[in-house]
Amino acid sequence: MKLWQKTSIITWLLAPFSLLFWFISQIRVALYRKKILKSYRSPVPVLVIGNISVGGNGKTPLVIWLVEQLQKRGVKVGVISRGYGGENKVYPQLVTPESDPKLMGDEPVLISQRTHAPVAISPNRQQSIELLLNQFELDLIVTDDGLQHYALDRDMEWVVVDGERRFGNGFVLPAGGLRELPSRLKQVQAVICNGKNANASEHAMHLEPDFAINLKTGEKRKLSEFTQPVYALAGIGYPPRFFNMLKELGIPLADTFSFADHQVFTAGMIVPKLSQNLPLLMTEKDAVKCKAFAQENWWYVPVSARFSEKSTACLVRMVMDLIKN
């Protein structure tokens, strides 16, 4: 929300509620630390990839990158997710590449499709871990989101920060977009900055597209070939990131359509907006929900996380050391 990016009179009107939110959250954290509230300890190491702010910061591409890096090194990785946005009511559930994102959530299905790693969903992370360990021999559990889910003990925490928006106006909810204050970053093992403005202590991550893939035929086309105007659609935490990426690639945008994160799509929500017979480009996360009714000229743009050699070596090494210990 733009309101959370700056301080205004509305910010100060909501500030008392933010103070209450922060106070309650601190009490909750203290109760877990003092073992008054019980937390679950997994028999295998757990790495949490989360954020301290509301909205998409790029956690899922980072999860995919990490799983692929570890798979290359022979590590058996399982992924758990809350399955946010899915309509499934029975938990826990295993997610496969063929799972319906409407039921299981778009991000778990995307992770399964890209990595083919075991993936389980449940609001109760313990249930997901137990389901995975009952069916797979795993060296590590990666949880996509869940930094504030203190009912789950964790061995390592990585936080993703949006390099463009950073921490907005610096307030916690509802006056700002933070779930926890930036001081929380001092307690985590790695801070990953997605995009611009990475600090010296952060690992800079860039999301790079290579090509577009047709939703109906699977045809791959270089993005440089999209020289005519196109429509662009994004139902992610911060849609402008996708639109700006296309602009930076020199792709002319006839119009853009922003939707809420985890939006469930129907043909009737999209087709009437396309008044001209132009290609439609969307994110890979949106594509998993649109394949059933895709048109001939609908394409999605997969992105992959990229790090410097130094950051790659550092991040992978700390996880490998965790597993060995």
Automatic annotation (TrEMBL):
InterPro entries in UniProt: LpxK (IPR003758), P-loop_NTPase (IPR027417)
GO annotations of cellular component type: plasma membrane
GO molecular function, one term: lipid-A 4'-kinase activity
Binding-site residues for ATP, renumbered to this chain: S53, V54, G55, G56, N57, G58, K59, T60
Protein family membership: Belongs to the LpxK family.
Annotated pathway: Glycolipid biosynthesis; lipid IV(A) biosynthesis; lipid IV(A) from (3R)-3-hydroxytetradecanoyl-[acyl-carrier-protein] and UDP-N-acetyl-alpha-D-glucosamine: step 6/6
Protein name, UniProt field: Tetraacyldisaccharide 4'-kinase
Gene behind this protein: lpxK
Chain's role: Transfers the gamma-phosphate of ATP to the 4'-position of a tetraacyldisaccharide 1-phosphate intermediate (termed DS-1-P) to form tetraacyldisaccharide 1,4'-bis-phosphate (lipid IVA).
